[in-house]
Amino acid sequence: MSVLNKKRWSPYLAGTLLGVLSWFAFLTAGQPLGVSSTFVRTAGMLESTVAPGHVQSNDYFKAAKVKLDWEWMITLGILIGAFASSRMSKEAPGESVPALWASRFGPSPARRMIGAFLGGVLLIFGARLAGGCTSGHGLSGSMQLAVSGWVFFACIFASGVATAKLLFRGGKS
Predict the structure, then answer these.
(1) Contacts of 139 by beta carbon, 8 Å cutoff, 6+ apart
(2) Other Cβ atoms within 10 Å of 143 Cβ, number
């Protein structure tokens, strides 16, 4: 069986490939890996179709140009790669509402999608507020041995545990 068809890759292989990708990003673009700016730039592209003057006068978009760049392409690649991976490994789609979620919030797929969407909104807001996302601060920052990257990782794990305990208190997996 090819490594591409496996349901789970070795963490050593995945880590090595991530390191190579990070090295390639520094070599070709002179920047660390990061994708959160892509969503803001995409919003700017959409906004420029209805209010181009507002986008051109916006201080954020003056600094972070509204354009398709390597970050936008890597975000698209993440989506395509996830889809290709699920097809190549013949992984069946997961359950729409896991038992743990259903025991805490009910069996509604719509409620779960709304929760996931709102969580994503909070995540992108926090990423932009912090000036970077998990890949920018956590992966690239820690690979560069930046203190901010390591602090970010500690905070993300601590907040993840606290959130899980708050949302799923008393739940059984």
Answers:
(1) 18, 22, 33, 149
(2) 16
* Assigned token pair, 146: 């930046």
Burial class from Cβ neighbours inside 10 Å (0-12, 13-18, 19+) for residue 35 reads buried
Q: CB-based burial of residue 41 (10 Å sphere; 0-12 exposed, 13-18 middle, 19+ buried)?
A: buried
pLDDT tens, position by position, 126-154:
877 877 777 777 788 888 888 888 888 88
Helix, strand or coil, per DSSP, at residue 41: helix
d(C-alpha 148, C-alpha 138), whole Å: 8
In 3-state terms, what secondary structure has residue 153? helix
- SS3 at position 93: coil
CA distance 83 to 87: 6
**Per-residue pLDDT reduced to its tens digit, 29-48:** 887 887 878 888 888 999 99
